[in-house]
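Predict the 3D structure for this chain.
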Amino acid sequence: MKRTTQIWAAPLLASLLLLGGCGLFGRDEAVKEIDPPQETSYVKDGQALQEATESQKEGKEKAKATETVKRELYLIDKNGFVVPQTVELPKTQAVAKQVLEYLVEDGPVSEMLPNGFRAVIPAGTTVLGTKLEKDGTLIADFSPEFKNYKPEDEKRILQSITWTLTQFDNIKRVKIRINGYDQNVMPVNKTPIQDGVSRADGINMEANGVPDITNTHPVTVYFVAQQGNSTYYVPVTRRVSNKEKDDIAAAVNELIQGPEQGSGLVGVFQPDAKLVDAPKYEDGKVTLNFNEGIYGSNKKNVISDVVLNSLVLSLTEQKGVESVAITVNGKANLVTEDGKPLTKPVARPQNVNTGTF
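Done. Predicted structure below.
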C-alpha cells in the first residue's frame, strides 16, 4: 500500500488553516426509545372530547414543525468515501426510521445535500420499520427496491446505514431485513451480514498491501478532504499489525503517514512529527507528547485546527477515550490558531462537517 505524507504548500496551508475549524459533529445523548408506537386516544359513546381552539392547534402544529435536531447522515462524497454530514432534521420520536429515510436517493435529503455528495440507499426504497432488540441490535426493514444498487456501492450502503444508526448510544449493531425477511448477506455482492454489522467492522476500509489480514486488526482515523473552499473530515479504517499493542500510538502514526496517494484526501501533519513518549491513558484522557514537528505553521507553539481535530476525532473513536491532551517535549504550552492556550484536554467536538459547500 503506497501512502504519502503531504507537505504543506502555501495555498493549501492557508486554506486549511482558515477552514480547519469548519464543521465538527455532535453526539446526542443515548436515545431511550427507538421508534415507539403511536398513541391512540379512544372516546366512549356519549363522551365529548374537549378540543383546543383552531388557533391553539395551528400554533402548536407550527411550533412542532419548526423544532429541529442535529443528526449525522453518512453520505457518499465525490471520491467515493462514506462521510458524516451533520444536518438539521425535524424533531421526532421515530429517530431510527427518520435517519434511514434521509439516506434514500431522491428522498427528503435531496434539498440539503452538500455539493459533491449523494445519498446511498436506492431511490424508491421505503423504510418499512425498525426494531431495537435488548442487546442493542437495530433491525432495519426495507422494501424490495433496496436491492436496486450498483455492486460497487454495496459496502458503502452497509457502512452508511450502520454508522448513521450507531450515532445513537443504545444502538450497537445493525441487521437488515427486506420486505420482512432477515438477510444473511447483502443482496447483490453477498457481503455477510447475518450476525449484524457494527462500527468495529470499519468504514472506508483500506486493505491494499496487507500481506496477512489475519494477523492485523482495524484502526479508524480521520483524514481531511476538500470541496471547493471548504474542508471536511473523512473516517478511514486501516489494518495494523497485531504486534502493535498500543492502538492509540498506531492511530497517531497512521495520521502522520497520511492518506493513500491519489485518494483525494489531504495529509495535514508535518512529515517530521512524531511522538516523543508512549501515549498515557488515565480515566478517559489520553496525553500525547510530540516533538516540535506537531506545529502546523511557522508560528511557535501553534497547532493547526485540522491537526487537532484529526487527532481528537481519531482517538475518541477508540473505546474509553473521551478527551486528548497534547504536550510538546513534555510542556503544555501550545496555543490554538485563534491564540487560546491549549491547557486543557480536548473532548470530541460537538459538530463535524456541518458546513454548506
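The chain is about 20% helix and 25% strand.
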